[in-house]
Design goal:
- This protein is of the alpha+beta class.
- It has a domain of 145 residues: Photosynthetic Reaction Center, Chain H, domain 2 (Alpha-Beta Complex).
- It is built from 3 helices and 11 strands; from the N terminus they run ααβββββββββββα.
């Protein structure tokens, strides 16, 4: 027999290979279970028909684990939590898995590209415990580089070319050192109010002194979700704001919901 052989049919290299296969299968099984700590069990038409049916797939969800947060609170995952929001959409057909169509304002109904998660209604914080995303008026030590265009005072132009509002301030991420939002003053029937515009949806035109936004129309800025505190934004508010502008890429006009050809 050659070196490393246990008998005529098995050697050490073969045993190591089999051991690796077993280890790799166990690793995939473990990781696949751990990634089911969020978003499971799934809600489907079948679970609505039979509450005893648990839509979790294979492998099953792991046992609940308690995670301790930096603020001293604890979170259990998977958690015994179900969606409490009213579903403002209706299926296009009577078969299971039928696509949903919004029943009201599609950009505010929270479905499709405008869907959002019910995150905690508290602001994200830095390691020092300060609100992470704040306007420049309260962010000491932050400013705009002198060689970059300052969007404050610029008109915000929607996809239809209409003016939606005016940039009043810039919201920065004190942890990542980047601009997250532009604060836009808009007018509606109740007077003036401020809304946030995600920086990823804005294109600052320094030469023409304007901010272009392709996702929504000029009049739709006035309907964007607002803030509970003028100087900070919560995780839940961020979800709603980003979902609103993202939903505009499909729902801002009826034509965007039609095929290109």
């Amino acid at each position: 027999m050659s070196t490393g052989a246990i008998n005529s049919y098995i050697d050490v290299a073969q045993i190591v290979l089999y051991a690796f296969w077993v280890f790799f299968f166990g690793l995939i099984y473990y990781l696949r279970r751990e990634d089911k700590r969020e978003g499971y069990p799934l809600e489907s038409d079948w679970t609505e028909r039979s509450p005893r049916m648990l839509a979790q797939g294979f492998p099953e969800m792991p046992a609940p684990k308690v995670f301790r947060l930096a603020n001293g609170k604890t979170v259990e995952a998977p958690r015994a939590w179900t969606e409490t929001r009213e579903l403002r959409a209706t299926p296009v057909g009577g078969w299971p898995g039928a696509p949903l169509v919004p029943t009201g304002d599609p950009m505010l109904d929270g479905v499709g590209p405008a869907a959002y998660a019910e995150r905690a209604d508290v602001p994200d914080t830095t390691v020092e415990g300060l609100p992470r995303i704040v306007p420049l008026r309260v962010a000491e030590g932050f400013g705009i580089e002198s060689r970059d265009p300052d969007p404050r005072g610029m008109d915000v132009i929607g996809a239809d070319g209409a003016v939606g509002g005016t940039v009043r301030d810039i919201w920065v991420d004190r942890a990542e050192m980047i601009i997250r939002y532009l604060e836009v003053e808009v007018s509606n029937a109740g007077g003036n109010r401020s809304v946030l515009l995600p920086m990823n949806c804005a294109r600052v035109d320094g030469r023409r002194r304007r901010v272009n936004v392709a996702s929504i129309l000029g009049a739709q800025f006035a309907l964007a979700p607002g803030l509970g505190n003028a100087n900070q934004v919560t995780l839940l508010e961020e979800e709603k704001i980003v979902a609103y502008y993202a939903g505009g890429y499909l729902y801002a006009t009826p034509a965007r919901q039609e095929p290109l050809l």
